[in-house]
Amino acid sequence: MDYLKIVLRLIHVISGVFWVGSAVFMNFFFGPTLRATGEAGKQFAGHLMTRTRFSNFITYSALSAVIAGALLYGIDADWFSSPWFRSGAGIGFAIGAVFGLVGLVAGLMNGNNIRKLSELGAQIQGKPTQEQMAALGAIQKQQMWVAPVNTYSLILAVFFMAIARYISL
Questions:
Q1: Could you read off the pLDDT of 126-163 as tens digits, one per residue?
Q2: C-alpha to C-alpha distances, 37 to 21, 30, 117, 157, 160, nearest whole angstrom
Q3: Secondary-structure percent of the chain, ordered helix, strand, coil, rounded to 5
Q4: Strand, coil or helix: 66
Q5: Structural domain boundaries in the chain
Q6: φ and ψ of 126, to 5 deg
Q7: How far apart are CA 62 and CA 110, in angstroms?
Q8: Cβ neighbours, 10 Å, residue 1
Q9: What burial class does residue 78 get, using C-beta atoms within 10 Å of its C-beta: 0-12 exposed, 13-18 middle, 19+ buried?
Q10: Are 58 and 19 in contact (CB under 8 A)?
Q11: Do the Cβ atoms of 29 and 41 come closer than 8 Å?
Q12: What is the rounded distance in angstroms from the CA atom of residue 83 to the CA atom of residue 8?
C-alpha cells in the first residue's frame, strides 16, 4: 500500500473541498449578501476578514491542495517521463491543474482586494474623500472580474479532476 499517495490524496481532496467550497460560498452567497445588507454587511465582512482566520484558512487550504496535487501528478507521471503523462487521465488532470492554478492566482488577487477593502473601510470616517472613493472604485472594478474567474476556474478544476480517469484518447 502506498501511504504517501494516500496521505497526499487526503490532503489534496480535503483542502480542495474547503478551498473550492469557500470560493463558491464567497462568490455566490457572501458577496451578494454583503452588497444587499449595506453597513451591517460591511461590519460582518470586516470582522470575518480581519478578526478571524478565515482568509488564512482559505490560503493555506489552496496552497496545500496545489502542492499535494502537484506531488500526486508528479508521482503518477513518474515526473513527466511515463506514458501516463500523455494518457487521457494525465491530460485530464493537467487541464484540471491549469484551472486550479488560475483559481489560485485569482484567489490570491481576490484575497488581496478584500484586505485592501477592509483597510480602506477602516480608514473611512463618515463620508469618503474623492481619493478614497477612487481607490474603492478601482478595487471594486477589479473584484468584479477576479471573483468570478476564481470561482469558475475552481469549479472547472474540480470537473476535470473528477472525470480525468474516464477520459480516453
A1: 888 899 889 989 998 999 999 999 999 999 999 999 99
A2: 22, 10, 16, 32, 36
A3: 85, 0, 15
A4: helix
A5: 3-166
A6: 80, -135
A7: 13
A8: 4
A9: exposed
A10: yes
A11: no
A12: 22
**Shortest CA distance to 106 belongs to which of 20, 5, 44?**
20
Distance in angstroms (rounded) separating the CA atoms of residues 6 and 9: 5
**C-alpha cell of residue 54:** 478565515
Other beta carbons within 10 angstroms of residue 21's beta carbon come to 13
CB 23 within 8 Å of CB 154: yes
Cα separation, 118 vs 108, in Å, equals 15
Length reported for the chain? 169
Extract the C-alpha cell encoding 10. 487526503
- Contact present, 62 and 15 (Cβ < 8 Å): yes
H or E stretch covering 29: none
pTM, full prediction: 0.90
Place of cell 478544476: 157
Q: Give me the phi and psi of 34, to 5 degrees please.
A: -60, -45
- The tens digit of pLDDT for each residue in 58-82 reads 999 999 999 999 999 999 999 988 9
The residues, ordered by sequence, that sit 6+ positions from 27 with a Cβ below 8 Å of its Cβ are 147, 148, 150, 151
116 pLDDT above the threshold of 90: no
